[in-house]
Specification:
This protein is of the alpha+beta class. The protein has three domains: about 100 residues, Acyl-CoA dehydrogenase/oxidase, N-terminal domain (Butyryl-Coa Dehydrogenase, subunit A, domain 1); about 110 residues, Beta Barrel (Butyryl-CoA Dehydrogenase, subunit A, domain 2); about 140 residues, Butyryl-CoA Dehydrogenase, subunit A, domain 3, CATH 1.20.140.10. Helix content is about 45%, strand content about 15%. The protein is built from 13 helices and eight strands. The strands form two sheets. The chain has a four-stranded mixed β-sheet with strand order 1-4-5-8. It has a four-stranded antiparallel β-sheet with strand order 2-3-7-6, with no helix packed on it. Helix 4 packs parallel to helix 8, helix 8 packs antiparallel against helix 10 and helix 8 runs parallel beside helix 11.
């Protein structure tokens, strides 16, 4: 592992940092929300607030000038074609500024899949609109009875002339309420073996027969949805790749930087702000009387965040050397998601009974109830994107070589 920048990397880091300092809109400075939901770029672009829409467009336009909306895409498709280390540096500086990343799943998932498997016509239609921010995408993979065992999905697409007629249901469709298009895995050959007979298809989310119903989580937010399909007609030309080979299409991702450095930086920033708040005159009013008993716990969080930084550096160093991280990515995901939960718990403990106050602007809300809300929001982090149980199985079998069963 090499923690230091080369001269070229240091120059690129300065370029990215200067760009963010001069071009990031004021409304995004200091923001802690770069994901789906309230305050995210994808939500802002559809907001009823004119200022929020203009801010989202201005930031996307600024990044588009550099090709940085899709830094990992090849240049011939409008991306920046950054190397693994350049992507790592770019993500690191964006995370330091808590700057939102435009494009969402259109950039991270749909684009790489389309680049590899899409027809020339599909690439020409969809890729430029992802890069311009004109179209945002949502993913239709999980179903009520097909989550971790995704290949068991049952949403059917039946060929009818030049169309497919789709019936079924998807769930946990993140950001669908803000999306313009949806990419989905559907079963086109019901009698084929489980991982076959599945096709990858794209569709306008306003197509008649598609109903998006928000799911309210226990923090009273609506980050994801149920999506219903009732006799939805989609042109057969919207199949990406080969019919009945969609499982392999859907698993495609270009080899781009996936170290998770953003999480480590975000947790470090949150811990630092927590400590600064406890030292302030206003924060002193909200501390539990014996809060100093938590000093060792706070120190543990600091050390764990440092370990997570090193996991990120390990992964990017492997990729930069031409290696493909396997169980290492599972270690990173498992450790990062559990740190998130422990940090949120520590934050609520510091404030004692004041941590029961939920309001953002309440007189007795420590840090605007931030750690209280994060305590609730962090619960699913050990479930989505591969549960902790699945990650431990991967580490055991692929990393430690333990036998299955």
């Amino acid at each position: 592992m090499d923690w230091s920048d080369s001269l070229e990397q240091a120059s690129f880091r300065e370029e990215v940092a200067t760009f963010i300092d001069t071009r990031l809109p004021a409304d995004y400075r200091g923001s802690e929300d770069g994901g789906e939901g309230r305050g995210s770029w994808q939500a802002d672009r559809k907001s009823a607030d004119v200022n929020a829409r203009e801010t989202a467009i201005a930031w996307a336009d600024a990044l588009a000038e550099k090709g940085w909306i899709a830094p990992h895409w090849p240049k011939e498709y409008g991306g920046a074609g950054l190397s693994t280390m350049e992507q790592f540096i770019y993500n690191q500086e964006m995370a330091k500024a808590a700057a939102p990343a435009p494009g969402g799943m259109g950039v991270s998932l749909l684009g790489p899949t389309m680049i590899v498997h899409g027809s020339d016509e599909q690439k020409a239609e969809h890729l430029p609109r992802v890069l311009s921010g004109e179209v945002a995408w949502a993913q239709g993979y999980s179903e009520p009875s097909a989550g971790s065992d995704l290949a068991s999905l049952q949403t059917r697409a039946t060929r009818d002339g030049d169309d497919y007629v789709i019936n079924g249901q998807k769930t946990w469709t993140s950001g669908a309420q803000y999306a313009d298009w949806l990419f989905a895995l559907v079963r086109t050959e019901p009698d084929a073996p489980k991982h076959r007979g599945i096709s990858f298809i794209v569709m306008d989310i306003k197509t008649p027969g598609i109903t998006v119903r928000p799911i309210v989580d226990m923090g009273w937010n609506e980050p994801f949805n149920e999506t219903f399909f009732e006799d939805v007609r989609v042109p057969a030309s919207n199949i990406v790749g080969e019919e009945n080979r969609g499982w392999y299409v859907g698993m495609t991702l270009l080899d781009f930087e996936r170290s998770g450095i953003s999480g480590a930086i975000s947790y470090d920033r949150n811990l630092t702000r927590l400590l600064d708040y406890t030292k302030s005159e206003h924060g002193n009013k909200h501390l539990r009387s014996d809060w100093r008993v938590l000093r060792h716990e706070v120190a543990e969080r600091h050390l764990e965040i440092g370990v997570l930084f090193n996991f990120a550096f390990r992964i990017v160093s492997m990729q930069n050397s031409g290696m493909v991280p396997n169980y290492e990515a599972s270690v990173n995901k498992l450790f990062g998601s559990e740190i998130h939960q422990r940090l949120a718990r520590t934050g609520t403990k510091v404030f004692g009974l004041y941590a029961n106050v939920w309001q953002e602007n309440g007189e007795h809300s420590p840090m605007g109830g931030e750690f209280t809300r994060d305590y609730v929001a962090s619960v699913p982090h050990t479930i989505f994107s591969g549960s902790s149980e699945i990650q431990r199985n991967v580490i055991a079998t692929r990393g430690l070589g333990l036998p299955r069963g």
